[in-house]
Amino acid sequence: MQAVIMAAGKSTRTYPLTLTRPKPLLKIANRPILEHQLSALRGLVDEALIVVSYRKEQITEWFGNQFEEISLRYVEQREQLGTGHAILQCKDYVRGPFIAMNGDDLYDAQDLRKLAAVEQGALAMQVPDPRLYGIYEVDNAGCAVRIVEKPVEVFSHLANVGAYKFDPDVFDVLSGTAPSERGEIEITCAVQTLAERGGFHVIEMAGYWLPIGYPWHLLNANEYMLENFLEHHIAGEVSPAAHLNGRVYVAPGAVVRSGVVIDGPVYIGRNATVGPNAWIRPCTTIGDGAKVGHAVEIKNSILFDRAAVPHLSYVGDSVVGEHTNLGAGTITANFRHDAANIGSQVKGEMIDTGRRKFGAIFGDGVHTGINTAVYPGRKFWPGTFSYPGEVIRKDVTEVKRLPQK
Domain with 354 in it: what CATH number? Predict the structure, then answer.
């Protein structure tokens, strides 16, 4: 069997992290999203057709033509004309029934196997607020009657999660599908047509579904993966004067110095250094070659490869991009005084993150000055910086010029 993974989008909602990389290469538990997806497909498919466009060369260079026993073929979507259009690009390469899935969601492997066992169908998950999703109505046999995007009237809580099993006949359906109001060919329009024909199964998921729509969703997924799948393993160097509690993964070449306290689950990548006298709190991933120095506290955060928090700083519920350096005394505030959910601005709109604890998102190559204080939910664009003692109340989106000597 084959799989089609839709990984072509630019993903502006996950800025600033996707200004410098495609979304499928965002890391969760130190593995790219796409790697998690391919791992879930092991033993189920022999080839994955990866639909690419934005920064496609980064994906092809990272994965090459093979992932373990799965052959990889890259199909370019030159124009971003919708999810249905993305699948249509694979028409000449599909041999038979295939799985199609969003390139930015993580799915449980066992649920994908249930999906593969039906002739045609889709995965779905029960959600508390159906008004935020595409929702399936199903008959007594568990087959789709209709799918409605963000319904006003609540008739079901079964949300579409973007994972499907199709027969090659779907290409004829997609070819005859009119563009939506957005001018795109939507895969859900084809699903509605298949539902009207009958026999399109809707399989309620028993495992996890981790969608990555906004930058803070990386924290949700990282927490889930570490809590449920991290194995305790020490391959690097750990000082006898360090204290490791719970499950901690220390990769080869990593160094944990004296006085460090690590409360698992925590992942420490290859050639990373931690300490001395640092506290790494649960659900933290420290990427390859990253540096956490003296008197630094990291809590429930992700440090991408070669990020540096050298000394005297607090990073809580945050994502720190590659080659970013947080100056001494940088503090990410991650809690409001009124204990309300923290908002974050996306494309000019303040979005409720749904999180009471949320710090900052630092793009790649950011530099903060000493004693920088960052309000909750704020973001730094790649290559930006703060001055010493600066208080960051708004997103930092423009690269400022350093004062001339």
Answer: 2.160.10.10
